[in-house]
Amino acid sequence: MLRSPRSLIRVLTLALAAAACAPVANAQTDSAAQSQKLSPIDQQFLQDAGQAGATEIAASKLALSHASDRQVREFAQRMIVDHTKLARNLDVIAKRHGIIAPAAADSAVIGSLQNLQGAEFDTAYIEKVAVSGHQKAVELFRKESESGNDTALKAAANKALPIISHHYEMAQQFAKTKAAS
Question: Is the CATH number 1.20.1260.10 carried by domain 39-180?
């Protein structure tokens, strides 16, 4: 219980001062979040990596129903699993920086595969997605791991690079095997 009107005025003054400081604290938090915005290089990496991953996943889902070769379907299933994990990791980092829009798959690549079936699909998928797509992804992730500005993105790219490089090696071997048969 307050003993005097003066005590009541002090309490009210402190309460008002605390309330007045709250927006300043929020403004400082907002400016701190803005200072953590990604550099153009890192933003481009997120956009390109997101599109590459979305394309890989979409094309690999097509492969599950359009491919005639069991090995193509098995490769596609592995790509779905691995690239979904990678996309989740990159999404977490993107969301920390306020980027929430999911990446869209490359419609030209998906469109070129959509109407193909069997061996024709297998050949196009191996060439456009497995080999060419992973070659570009290796270059993209290597560049980010070497010259990106955001430490979390650089670390994620560095961690993903051996997996993507392995996918690329598998794809190259796969292409050679299919060409020989």
Answer: yes
